[in-house]
């Protein structure tokens, strides 16, 4: 399937050196893998062998090639992690104002107040993390 790919990837000695460096030194493992895959490609390995050595699917291999075609080595470094936001984020200002005037004595009390004020029910752990992340103080830290 991939062996018949029509677009040729070209690699200058500088690009090969950058791929070689980044495959070991980039702080994000996903980027290291991308660099490794393109480095293997630059050495003329067959696509099936590159996918096997890179422990990726052939579809992912095509995606890495496309990233390189569109943005070069810098394109391979782009990582967009999905990080969902809590529904409580839209209430952070009103909750902060409320808890500044009415500090909860416990996480359990904060949990109850948040549910009453927003209609959103969260576990004590989720409430504790939300309050901590948004620097909202609780008077008695116990649950």
Description:
- The chain is an all-alpha fold and 143 residues long.
- It has two domains: 2-77, no CATH class; 87-133, no CATH class.
- Helix content is 61%, strand content 0%.
- Helix 2 (29-42) crosses helix 4 (58-77) and helix 6 (107-118) packs across helix 7 (124-133).
- The radius of gyration is 25 Å and the shape is rod-shaped.
- The chain starts with 12 loop residues before the first helix and ends in a 10-residue tail after the last helix.
- 20% of the residues are buried.
Entry summary:
This protein has helices at 13-25, 29-42, 47-54, 58-77, 92-101, 107-118, 124-133. It contains 7 helices and no strands.
Descriptive keywords:
single chain, 143 residues, mainly alpha, 2 domains
Structural class: mainly alpha
Q: Largest sheet at a glance?
A: none
How many helices? The count is: 7
Helix content estimate: 55-70%
Strand content: under 5%
Task: Outline the fold blueprint.
Elements: H1 13-25, H2 29-42, H3 47-54, H4 58-77, H5 92-101, H6 107-118, H7 124-133
Helix pairs in contact: 1-2, 2-3, 2-4, 6-7
């Amino acid at each position: 399937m991939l062996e018949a790919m029509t677009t040729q990837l070209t690699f200058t000695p500088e690009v090969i050196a950058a791929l070689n460096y980044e495959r070991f030194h980039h702080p994000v493992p996903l980027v290291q893998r991308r660099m490794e895959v393109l480095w293997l490609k630059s050495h003329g390995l067959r696509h099936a062998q590159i996918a096997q050595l890179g422990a990726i699917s052939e579809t992912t291999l095509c995606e890495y090639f496309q990233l390189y075609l569109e943005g070069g080595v810098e394109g391979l470094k782009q990582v967009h992690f999905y990080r969902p936001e809590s529904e409580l984020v839209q209430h952070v200002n009103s909750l902060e104002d409320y808890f500044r005037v009415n500090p909860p004595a416990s996480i359990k009390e904060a949990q109850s107040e948040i549910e009453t004020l927003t209609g959103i029910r969260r576990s004590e752990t989720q409430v504790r993390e939300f309050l901590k992340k948004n620097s909202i103080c609780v008077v008695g830290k116990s649950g």
